[in-house]
């Protein structure tokens, strides 16, 4: 065999050895990448294992999130000095990594001269510390730009076609692993976020039930503070605005000894009632405060002396969030949550959830005030307009609600809206009525009383709903006198139940259409019908509705759908969405939820009175 032949054979054997080594390296890298779960793990393997396989002296792997204008470092290896300044790199054409990402094509720089010729601005950095050649490859899967990887070499390197193909293959493996890791991380984060949101919604539901309990305002707030430390905070406190001062009404911790410690601390260092800062300022200004880290300077500023400061530090406060108890544009106080020994932290992302919790408490406080106001209205309406209580119906839950207009927006405190449920004993059925008399004041109240008592009288005769409305119409025409403009809209029904379902026969006299909630699906009941009290003859049609267990019928006055807020009218579409969102709630909770939505839509200032009747077939 000639010398040339020996030389060719040696070259062939060397190529085969290199090819075998690369194939084994690819297999090893593939196995390691398959076990990596996070983008950081992929970046580390790319910058170490993949770089070693390629023979690179240094490597930097960067990721790009969903078309962002910057890339973030996943891992760097082999670069001397502090690389923190390159933790993020903006995408900018005319730079090798940016060009690779934006074009989707590798950038090959075989020596320092090519660096200086193609990227003169970046060359001092690219060939620093003795580096010569660089291969910059995009990390790309299909049409998704995931980032880029830079392999750098101390020697010049001619990237022949075979080596370029090999480097592209390595980058492709890393890109596919990075794509999978991102999907896994996104799925894991989404699952964790969903679980956290589920827990928070359950907590808010529990807090809402607590706020609805027949307790005094202060007892409700004390129980709310106790509830908060069972899962979302280590400490909690509630302050209320009382006149010109802000007073603490509740403080809670799972360890009674710590509460006693705070009591002793406050007795030893009583707080100036006129002092500012913290919950006091939040209660007065209505502006929330989030402290991911409680700075020691804040403790120093609040301490009276060194002993006081030492005792405050013993509480171990790490993070805090303080939100106002806001309702109808007013701050009633503040809710404070503190993280201490658990080591957890509050962030801006927690503000919405804690704000919802505070809103629940604020609504409870405001409802207490509204209740007192409604009692004044009820003294006028009790005998003429509204039933003192709704009857208990086997297998059926009923909830009736009435809200007067905001006293700041009207001089009239007697409205013309009516809801009623009463028993027809002789036939074992119940009559349902919701009506809205045009106008307000004593005349409207008198006409409403006439409607209610006429319905009671005619139902006892066993008349069908349409005939009852005709009798009411005749009575209104007889008694309207000079009040020619007085009329009413009415929805009237008779309800009976059998062993399986509840049957409602409904008629509508110019009234807004009712709706039925079945599961989380809303069905409208839009019946034609003539206004009551205007024409001698009424054009009416009856319809029969079957309520299966869990189904809910909602009747209401136009104060709901015609409520005007900053976004225009509340409207039937928004009402349907609100009712659907309350699926699964009790009749009382659904009625309260609709009223709360209407009130919030008008920023707590109702321009018209609202009547609402909810009838739910029990499961």
From TrEMBL:
Claim: Hydrolase is one of the keywords in the record: yes
Limits of the GAF domain: 38-188, 216-375
Record bears the keyword Ligase: no
UniProt-listed InterPro entries: Bact_Sigma-Reg, GAF, GAF-like_dom_sf, PPM-type-like_dom_sf, PPM-type_phosphatase-like_dom
UniProt keyword terms in alphabetical order: Hydrolase
PPM-type phosphatase domain segment(s): 393-617
Identification of the protein by name: SpoIIE family protein phosphatase
Organism per entry: Actinomycetospora flava
């Amino acid at each position: 065999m000639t010398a040339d032949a020996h030389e060719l054979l040696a070259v062939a054997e060397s190529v085969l050895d290199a090819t075998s080594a690369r194939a084994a390296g690819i297999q090893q890298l593939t196995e390691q990448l398959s076990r990596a779960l996070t983008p950081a793990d992929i970046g580390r393997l790319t910058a170490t294992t993949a770089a070693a396989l390629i023979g690179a002296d240094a490597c930097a792997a960067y990721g790009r999130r969903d078309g962002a204008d910057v890339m973030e470092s996943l891992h760097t290896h082999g670069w001397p000095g502090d690389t923190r300044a390159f933790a993020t790199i903006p995408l900018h054409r005319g730079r090798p990594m940016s060009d690779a990402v934006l074009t989707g094509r590798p950038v090959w720089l075989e020596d320092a001269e090519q660096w200086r010729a193609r990227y003169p601005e970046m060359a001092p950095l690219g060939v620093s510390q003795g580096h010569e050649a660089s291969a910059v490859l995009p990390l790309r899967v299909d049409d998704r730009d995931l980032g880029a990887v830079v392999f750098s070499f101390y020697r010049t390197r001619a990237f022949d076609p075979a080596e370029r193909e090999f480097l592209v293959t390595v980058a492709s493996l890393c890109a596919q692993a990075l794509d999978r890791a991102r999907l896994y991380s996104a799925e894991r984060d989404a699952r964790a976020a969903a679980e956290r949101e589920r827990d928070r919604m359950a907590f808010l539901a529990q807090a809402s039930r607590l706020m609805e309990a027949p307790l005094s305002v202060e007892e409700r707030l004390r129980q709310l503070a106790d509830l908060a430390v069972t899962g979302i905070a280590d400490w909690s406190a509630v302050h209320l605005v009382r006149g010109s001062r802000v007073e603490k009404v509740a403080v809670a911790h799972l360890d009674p000894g710590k509460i006693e410690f705070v009591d002793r601390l406050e007795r030893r260092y009583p707080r100036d009632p006129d002092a500012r800062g913290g919950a006091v300022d939040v209660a007065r200004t209505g502006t929330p405060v989030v402290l991911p880290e409680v700075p020691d300077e804040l403790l120093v500023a609040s301490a009276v002396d060194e002993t006081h400061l030492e005792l405050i530090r013993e509480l171990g406060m790490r993070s805090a969030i303080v939100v106002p108890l806001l309702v109808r544009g007013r701050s009633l106080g503040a809710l404070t949550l503190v993280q201490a020994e658990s080591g957890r932290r509050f962030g801006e992302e927690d503000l919405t959830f804690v704000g919802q919790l505070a809103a629940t408490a604020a609504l409870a406080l405001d409802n207490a005030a509204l209740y007192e106001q409604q009692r004044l209205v009820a003294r006028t309406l009790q005998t003429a307009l509204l039933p003192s209580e709704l009857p208990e119906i086997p297998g059926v839950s009923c909830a009736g609600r009435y809200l007067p207009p905001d006293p700041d927006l009207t001089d009239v405190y007697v409205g013309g809206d009516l809801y009623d449920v009463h028993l027809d004993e002789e036939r074992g059925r119940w009559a349902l009525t919701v009506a809205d008399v045009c106008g307000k004041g004593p005349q409207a109240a008198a006409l409403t009383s006439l409607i209610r008592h006429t319905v009671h009288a005619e139902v006892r005769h066993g008349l069908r709903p349409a005939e009852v409305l005709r009798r009411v119409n005749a009575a209104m025409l007889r008694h309207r006198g000079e009040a020619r403009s007085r009329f009413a809209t009415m929805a009237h029904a008779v309800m009976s139940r059998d062993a399986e379902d509840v049957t409602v026969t409904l008629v509508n006299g110019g009234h807004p259409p009712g709706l039925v909630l079945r599961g989380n699906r809303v069905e409208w009941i839009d019946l034609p019908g003539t206004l009551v009290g205007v024409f001698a003859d009424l054009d009416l049609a009856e319809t029969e509705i079957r309520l299966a267990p869990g189904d809910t019928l909602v009747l209401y006055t136009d104060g709901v759908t015609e409520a005007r807020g900053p976004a225009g009218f509340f409207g039937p579409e928004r009402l349907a969405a609100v009712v659907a969102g309350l699926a699964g709630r009790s009749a009382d909770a659904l009625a309260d939820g609709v009223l709360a939505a209407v009130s919030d839509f008008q920023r707590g200032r109702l321009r018209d009175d609202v009547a609402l009747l909810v009838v739910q077939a029990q499961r």
